[in-house]
């Protein structure tokens, strides 16, 4: 559970950085730095979803 909360906080931090970076790059999603940070955010979201699914499976087994 703690890992999920920490991951959610990191997702929000990276999302904020991405928003600022896109604004700095005048809305260009093709900028290499924007693309790189976007991929990092995607990886965090995938990891969050995997952890959440694993947690739900664990909870279902204990019921």
Describe it.
The protein is an all-alpha fold. It starts with a helix and ends with a helix. It has one domain (2-62). The chain is elongated. It has helices at 2-24, 32-62.
What's the main sheet like? none
Number of structural units classed as domains: 1
Helix/strand/pairing category: mainly alpha
Strand content: under 5%
Shape verdict: elongated
Distance between the termini: 17 Å
pLDDT averaged over residues: 94
What sequence of helices (H) and strands (E) makes up the elements? HH
Poorly predicted sequence stretches spanning 5 or more consecutive residues: none
**Counting H and I runs of at least 4 residues, what is the number of helices?**
2
**Over all CA atoms, what is the radius of gyration?**
15 Å
The helical percent reads over 70%
- Strand tally is 0
Oligomer: single chain
Topology of helices and strands:
Layout (H helix, E strand, L loop, with lengths): L1 H23 L7 H31 L1
Features of the shown structure:
single chain; 63 residues; mainly alpha; 2 helices
Brief synopsis:
By secondary structure, this protein is mostly helical. It has helices at 2-24, 32-62. It has one domain (2-62).
